[in-house]
């Protein structure tokens, strides 16, 4: 029977990204994980509007105007809080001699750069980089895999 592997691929790719960044995977039914996926999906759809493009050029004006860009900003802040909570937990349990994941490696580098006033290794940079990995990696990788499956169906001899 026909089926759409789209959501399965998004969940699988997101979980792989989670294991690299957070050092842990989520259960596919985990409420926090599903909320994170929904927010990423909603933001992908909202980015197709002209409002985010206008926001990039006129952020001060657009902050005052209603529109889908406000929801995009709100969703990004929710994801950012989720990630900051995980970063805070990592800071509490950090073992500098045994990094578990991307966050631990970044925190170790932050500690090394502590005396450098021009260092880009900050909590804000860490959270934004993590968000970028999710936004960029989840959608593009799952769509690429989806197209790969379509090509394999069309050319089964491959």
Description:
With 158 residues, this protein is mainly α. The protein has one domain. It has helices spanning 6-21, 31-46, 50-57, 59-62, 68-93, 102-112, 123-154. Helix 1 (6-21) runs antiparallel to helix 7 and helix 2 (31-46) packs antiparallel against helix 5 (68-93). The mean pLDDT is 89. One of its GO terms (molecular function) is oxidoreductase activity, acting on paired donors, with incorporation or reduction of molecular oxygen, reduced flavin or flavoprotein as one donor, and incorporation of one atom of oxygen. Its EC number is 1.14.14.1. It is a peripheral membrane protein. Keywords: Endoplasmic reticulum, Heme, Iron, Membrane, Metal-binding, Microsome, Monooxygenase, Oxidoreductase.
Order of helices and strands: HHHHHHH
How much strand? under 5%
Number of structural units classed as domains: 1
Share of helix among residues?
over 70%
DSSP summary, beta strand count: 0
Mean pLDDT: 89
Unreliable sequence segments: none
Secondary structure layout plus pairing:
Layout: H1 6-21, H2 31-46, H3 50-57, H4 59-62, H5 68-93, H6 102-112, H7 123-154
Helix pairs in contact: 1-7, 2-5, 5-7
Give a nutshell description of this structure.
With 158 residues, the chain is mostly helical. It has one domain.
Could you list some keywords that capture this structure?
mainly alpha, 7 helices, 72% helix, endoplasmic reticulum, 158 residues, heme binding, arachidonate epoxygenase activity
